[in-house]
Amino acid sequence: MGKVRITILDDYQNVVKDLACFSLLKNQDVTVLSTSEKEVPVLAEKLKDTEILVLIRERTEITEELLSRLPHLKLISQTGKISNHLKLELCTKYNVSVAEGIGSPIAPSELTWALLMNTVRKIPQAIKAMQQGKWQINMGTSIHGKTIGIWGYGKIGQKIAQYAQVFGAKVLVWGSEKSRNKAVEDGFLKANSKADFFKTADIITLHLRLNEATSEIVKKYDIQMMKDNACFINTARAELVENGAIEEILKSGQKINFGFDVFENEPIFDRNFPLFQYENVVCTPHLGYVEENSYELYFEKAFENVMLYINGNPTNIANSETLN
């Protein structure tokens, strides 16, 4: 089989070609695009000859409009797990196979804890002020003795609970009955109600998958119940929170500190982005899984799936009916 035309999307940092696992694609015709393109006709033109598309997580939405413009596309190889950016039934309709990758909770968990610590201790604000010639302009608080509320006790939520325990914090879990009971088995506390969860926790961090049931599951009034100087951390998905709720709370002047790694529309290049205007908000550019070891893990599996497909042994195909 000759060279296959492969395109890798949204490599913001231009690092994919430097990964050790990139060698798996040797002898193929590989194009790496480093800038995101939201206009479907423009993106379709760039991908018009692509036979295999490698996605970096959920950075590009695969719509029917896009699929209908890519007649040569045979395979989408996903880094990590399939999520809401891609509908399997649409890919199947256009006879595009989708290979699913693997994920790891390690990098997202560590980033969550780093963001949480920075938000609570107000470290970024202090660094910024110091660079402006100022000294000790604010005062954060410690983790020890606080109650950390974890909504979603899956792989990441469990790691956050372990970190909290090491730092001498109490852990309060909210979520499904199964997850709450699992938390109790692990020696942590479970909230009796959502209201109890929001009123009791000093710091709340979200670790839920985004789906129809969880979209906008966190309401404005939930956050408004939080204590003065409490912290709200979201490294999961922006759409878990009611649309407009965060900005309304910030405008109200309520004393809550926020830490965000996820946003409804990414990437963000606007220096005047509303969340950047508040001293009680810390933002990171969706770094949760963006870490060297994670990239090697994610891309190695994605590239393996590509080569297995090319060599006639398609593996990890989520819509296997496309292979018939």
Features:
324 residues; alpha/beta; seven-stranded parallel sheet; 11 helices; 12 strands; globular
Structure description:
The protein has helices spanning 40-46, 64-67, 88-93, 106-121, 123-131, 155-166, 177-185, 194-200, 220-224, 245-252, 292-310, and strands spanning 5-8, 29-32, 52-55, 75-78, 97-99, 147-151, 170-174, 189-190, 203-206, 230-234, 256-260, 281-283. α4 (106-121) packs across α6. It has eleven helices and twelve strands. The strands form two sheets. Strands 8-7-6-9-10-11-12 form a seven-stranded parallel sheet, sandwiched between helices. It has a five-stranded parallel sheet with strand order 2-1-3-4-5. It has 324 residues and is an alpha/beta fold. The two termini are 20 Å apart.
